[in-house]
Amino acid sequence: MSRLINPDSAGKERTKMTRAAALAVRELSRTNPSANDGQLNEARDLAAFIALVLESIAETIEVSVAAWEKRNYWVKADKFRMDWRWAGQLGNQMREAAAKEDWASVADVAMQVALKLHTIKISEKHRMGRPWEGSWSRLN
């Protein structure tokens, strides 16, 4: 019997989500929520999207380590969990800051996310679109 390959693995989903988060952080750094209502709505959507995507990334961690734990690779599984623990923590912090509309805290958390995702390169001609649109309504 041949191997079954899942094209939608947790790792691939995590990669897509980290790229989207990096793009959202980049766009958030360009917005000024105090400028006008358009930029305020954009900033709300971006902050909400970052919170939601970081929480989704945190959910994929246990799926990824389950296979390692079945094979008794406990150290590898624990190291992977420690390497990605920041996603859930920063996701919760961003959710709280976005809900309060505390833009200083949003900027602080976004900077921490940017430091974690600094190795991700996204070209100016990416095809991701604007995945954060409408995220503010999903956050609440």
Characterization of this structure:
With 140 residues, the protein is mainly alpha-helical. The chain has one domain. Helices cover 71% and strands 0% of the residues. The protein has 5 helices and no strands. The chain has helices spanning 10-29, 37-70, 74-100, 103-116, 135-139. The longest helix has 34 residues, at 37-70. The radius of gyration is 17 Å and the shape is elongated. The N and C termini lie far apart (47 Å).
What is the tally of beta strands?
A: 0
Radius of gyration (CA) equals 17 Å
H/E series: HHHHH
Whole-Å distance between the termini? 47 Å
Overall shape: elongated
Number of domains: 1
Percentage of residues assigned to helices: over 70%
Model regions low in confidence, pLDDT < 50 over at least 5 residues: none
* Count of helical stretches: 5
Helix-strand blueprint:
Elements: H1 10-29, H2 37-70, H3 74-100, H4 103-116, H5 135-139
Name the features:
single chain, about 140 residues, mainly alpha
Can I get a quick summary?
This protein is mainly alpha-helical. 71% of the residues lie in helices and 0% in strands.
